[in-house]
Write a structure and sequence with these properties.
The chain has 704 residues and is of the alpha+beta class. Among the domains are: 65 residues, no CATH class; 244 residues, Neurolysin, domain 3 (Orthogonal Bundle), CATH 1.10.1370. Strand 7 and strand 8 form a beta hairpin. The radius of gyration is 25 Å and the shape is globular.
Length: 704
Amino acid sequence: MKKIGLSVVALALILNACNTTKEQKKDMNNPFFKEYTTPFQVPPFNEIKLEHFLPAIEAGITDHLAEIKTITDNKEEPTFENTIQAFDESGLLLSRANLTFSNLNSANTNDEMQALAREITPKITTHSDNIMLNKALFTRIKAVYDKRKEINLNPEQLRVTEKYYEDFVRSGANLPDDKQTELRKLNDELSMLCLKYGENILAETNKNFKLVVDNEADLKGLPADVIAGAADQAKNDSLAGKWVFTLQKPSWIPFLQYAENRELRKKLYDGWLMRGNNNNANDNKEIVAKVVTLREQRAKLLGFDSHAAYVVDINMAKTPGNVYDFLHKLWTPTLNRAKVELADMQALSDKEGGKFKLEMSDWWYYAEKVRKAKFDLDESATKPYFSLDNVVKGMMHVSGKLYGIKFVERTDLPIYNEEVKAYEVQEADGSHIGVFYMDFHPRPGKGGGAWCTSFRDTWYQNGKKVTPVVSIVCNFTRPVGDVPALLSLDEVTTLFHEAGHALHGLFTDGPYRRTAGNVPRDFVELPSQIMENWATEPEVLRAYAKHYKTGEVMPDALIEKISKSAQFNQGFITGEYIAASLLDMDWHSKPFTGDVLAFEKASMDNIGLIPEIAPRYRSTYFSHIFSGGFDYSAGYYVYLWAAVLDADAFDAFEKSGNIFNPEIAAKFRTLLAKSGSDEGMTIYRNFRGQDPSLEPLLKNRGLK
């Protein structure tokens, strides 16, 4: 879940859903114009139709502007209540409609919805600028900010006042009129470019490439479940009797791991590697060039040397220099480890009679062979113990044991797709915490990867807590026939990861929408990544890793192999991540030469990335930093920054002798609940009692 400080276009996107605040002529058949009567007032997905979104968003914009006018027309002296709090409570209809639309456009889109997004996006961008560049509103906010130390604000009031003032300044409120006009043009163009980039990647991933195998001999080496899944995909594509492999991770990764046909492995990998770089209608090179140029212009307009400087200024890292120092400190040991891994694989290939130098597309295949040779561990041996239902139970087991909560499946809640499951999350005494949706499998209208989002965040309205509605969206292996969805170890940790984000949203407790749960980008991934630690703990595996046929608990011998291989391939895993993080920082802090591919190559050559590894995301499909929606531009490093925090935090549990230590768990839940109420490092120190150490991370990844 990306919960960060508000940017110029984010305001209307992440406000919570509530009732409309002004009476207007509205079609009351539109569910957005009525109070939700669903359980826990979740969105009535069964009633919402495509034609409802635009009228609701347009009415929401009108309502929001009227609410702002009420604030600015107030003749009374600006106070916290009549200015800051009133602003925090505005825009509720717009939020409800647009947040629902944005989430569905990411997880359940189609051509009509994408066309509507192209119509809605500029409206939202313009409206956000109209709010953040409203001089009368900023004057009142500044008046409260200037006297904030003298008017007896409590700590939460003080923080929300300071954060709103910071938002307006960073959004250009202090710029002269001509510069604000320029800023508006930049924001509008950027929003549309990023939307188009994301549409292109969706098409490149889900529509424009598939590997069709019609010779059964070419399937040699593949596990039975992977072959069955490919046959099932072929049937869906009207290619019965053949096998289809796609660019969805549950399809291409096992093919690269196990298929003996080297030529086909390369063909499939190149399909992945070349997304957005095929000189077709979905090519993203020109968009990348425009986005980085416009972002640099915007940053300089706002008084920063670069877009990276603008972004990192409000993060824990504070400066791009600190980010580079952090990444480079880890790069040398990581690259050295990757070279050793490559040498091991090349030696194995040579021993088998391979008369070739390994390439990028060979890494997964030979890494799997080395893992089998070194640890006698084959991922196909673990998957039968990781049925999706059991892994979900494992996540719930960990959450319950740590925090005393329980998950109650609700079949009476409306869902936006038949595959979605809904749960009520309760305290041990049965009291309501929030609603949790889970959406697990790939489909044509869903973006790639995995993420956590919310349909409603926590805040307080008239002193009463508004409970959260959160959702995790993944692209996990599908069930085939009578075999349930069997997850890879990577998919297992991904589920725990996204559930960690969800717990953050569920536990958040703060009075104001601007600050409740809103943390720096390089803090965001701490709640998710710490959950990954429990996924493969022996004690936890024994609780949920059970064979889907027999119910047999995973044998201790297999659990031991998983533990012993935990550091395996970390040179590659950490290396491709650091490479992508440095590429991201270079894009947003260094001069652009005008050639996207040449810039990318120079960036990777500069760090000495070996040719057998590509950055985890190349520029033309780096959705984290170039796509619309959740923006991690100049911030992809945050996963590794947060990894330092999560390793240090989990180290506290381990050193206590109890990975479910109730006292430490209670402190960590407080960290999650109060995140946003203070600076990220302050919140962390309050939990840990000390600054985070880099040592646990280096130890965990075998980099020292």
